[in-house]
Amino acid sequence: MMEEILPGLFRIVLPLPGNPLKEINSYVLTSEDRNLIIDTGMNRPECQEVLNPALSALGIDLGRTDIIATHYHADHQGLVFTLLRNGSKAYMGTSDALAMEAGSTTHARKVPMGDYAAISGFPEAELRWAQENHPGFKYGPQAVVNYIHLKEGDGFTIGEYRLQVIETPGHTGGHVCLYDARNKILFSGDHVLGDITPNIQAWTDDDDPLGKYIQSLDKIRNLEVSLCLPGHRSVIRDLEKRIEELIEHHRVRANEVLAILERGPRNAYRTASEMTWDIVAKSWEDFPVMQKWFATGEAIAHLRFLEDRNFISRELINGIITYSAPSSSSQRL
Ligand SMILES: [Zn+2]
Hints:
Strand order of the largest sheet: 1-2-3-4-5-6-7
Largest sheet: 7 strands, mixed
Number of strands: 14
CATH class of the largest domain: Alpha Beta
Helix content: 25-40%
Mean pLDDT: 94
CATH architecture of the largest domain: 4-Layer Sandwich
Shape: globular
Number of domains: 2
Order of helices and strands: EEEEHEHHEHHHHEEEEEHEHHHEE
Strand content: 15-25%
Structural class: alpha/beta
Low-confidence stretches: none
Radius of gyration: 20 Å
Number of helices: 11
Bound molecules: zinc ion
């Protein structure tokens, strides 16, 4: 599906079969001079079968087309390598581009991952399956892309559109949004979504993605935006309201995690199994392994957030990070 949202600004909706996200929005800005693609879809035929004819219908010359990936997840940059031609450039936020180059994410080609999942209580057999079937691993770019690193304030002009880079770490460490102040448009990537809640995961002790995410929501809440164009599903008209809903969602979620820990010490995997999820499954045991992976990553993000703010503490029990809340306090955020 393709629609012209405003003159020279198109949205192409690419399918993600079997993925709860269902589809991804790729945006194309065209001009006499150069074109820009924001997010590409996964490196899988179902995406290419929709994207390629749409780009042809727009008369896009890929040699005069640059690409920005809002972040390193495979649904946003899987086809960058395939679309690049001599004369075109690819851009990504600095810390995501560095993570890709270092191979330290499942969305890079070669990944040593899983150690942190193991000490978070993820069972070994499920861990191996998740590693082999992670969408980032399966549907990432077919070869390494030499990304130009984006930083705060970098600018792009395409016809009537002037985009400015806003660094919004949280969903990933190097996530960026693109803001056109004159036209009051925000390309929000996966930082703000309308119909679903962006997944915030942590897989390390050295970071507080949820804390950064909330800061990054605050950072954009006062921008003048009349049209917010997200990475998935429908466009957002009232950005400030949506940001308030997302902040409230995570406050409720963090309190849910606190209540779970008051029942006794737990690792992240078990904490995730007791949280409420929007997944159609009879029980945690029936969750697809990949969904258990994302759920555990999200549980870790909330546990890290609570730990950094001294709501909970941890100890290492038999090599597994085990969190506990003071039993008597019943404190809430
Ligand atoms: Zn994402």
